[in-house]
Design a protein that fits this description.
With 303 residues, this protein is α/β, with parallel strands linked by helices. It starts with a strand and ends in a 12-residue tail after the last helix.
């Protein structure tokens, strides 16, 4: 197949590229820059220049593809609500290009959308349209496309990690560095799910090959690591204290990040494993947090 991959030079997308090529697919990869285009072309990927701010360009690329995998997202979390709405517009544009066909569109969301609010782990069979996470906009857009007959499949992400990046935890690390403490709320019993980035990339390939229309898949290798455990590992890495904050003090300490800091986001991936035969093998979040470089300015090598 000819697959249009958004976010092709990004943290997850750059790992999906070799999965697709190894499966014999041709890849058209979205990039914003000349450097990104050169990187893609060096790996045998055709580059498509465009941005999330120009959904019409993305729609044109999708129109010539046999399948679309959408992983690009503006990760400026200080402007999270607006960026989630931008993602909704992009998904609508990609779906419009596939209307009237059976070509699949794989979109990306968060595991929190599967939280039924009953204290159980989030699951694939649940879509909580009232979840406070603004990323719900992505799945609302996907649902609209499903009703229009488009083959939409959803990959929901936990904290995706290696020794350079860890999803929202990367932001937590920077806040901890700036504040001089690694803080958790109350007892720090709220839990965050996780998966290694290479395992997540494999899942996208499986969803393309074996997934089904309307299904939601959880890229969850670990159901939930307590916030206190994460904070203590970060504290050790940065050489700062780990402290408990009250809910009232947390709002001032974390700022905009407070909407995530106290969430219990435990999630299951059992159904996904059973359906697709996905078996995560990568390092755990704890292993990666123990072995990462905490020096200021340390960053992942460019893909």
């Amino acid at each position: 197949m000819r697959v249009f991959l958004t976010g092709a030079t990004g943290f997850i997308g750059s790992r999906i590229v070799p999965e697709l090529l190894a499966a014999g697919h041709q890849v058209l990869g979205l990039t914003r820059s000349d450097a990104g285009a050169r990187t893609l072309e060096a790996t045998g990927v055709q580059a498509h220049r465009g941005t999330l701010e120009d959904p019409e360009s993305l729609s044109a690329a999708a129109a010539g593809a046999d399948a679309v995998i959408h992983t690009a997202f503006d990760h400026d979390f200080s402007n999270f609500v607006a960026n989630c709405e931008k993602d909704r517009r992009v998904i609508n544009a990609l779906g419009a290009a596939l209307k009237g066909s059976d070509r699949p569109l794989i979109i990306t969301s968060g595991t929190g959308m599967g939280d039924a609010g009953q204290g159980r782990p989030a699951t694939e069979d649940v879509f909580n349209a009232n979840h406070p996470n603004p990323r719900v906009a992505s799945e609302l857009a996907g649902n609209e496309l499903l009703r229009a007959g488009i083959d939409v499949r959803v990959v929901r992400l936990p904290q995706v990690h290696d020794t350079f990046r860890q999803g929202l935890i990367s932001t937590f690390i920077e806040i901890s560095r700036e504040r001089g403490v690694a803080a958790y709320i109350g007892e720090g019993a709220n839990r965050w799910p996780a998966a290694h980035v290479l395992d997540v990339a494999k899942l996208y390939g499986l969803v393309l090959a074996k997934g089904r229309k309307g299904a939601r898949y959880h890229a969850v290798a670990e159901e939930g690591i307590p916030a206190r455990t994460i904070a203590e590992l970060v504290a050790a890495g940065l050489g700062v204290p780990a402290i408990s904050l009250s809910a009232g003090d947390a709002a001032q300490h974390f700022g905009w990040f407070n909407i995530f800091a106290g969430l219990d986001m435990r999630a299951s991936g059992a159904w996904t494993r059973a359906q697709l035969g996905w078996e995560p093998t990568g390092p755990s979040l704890i292993e990666d947090l123990k072995h990462m470089d905490y020096r200021a300015g340390a960053a992942a090598p460019k893909p």
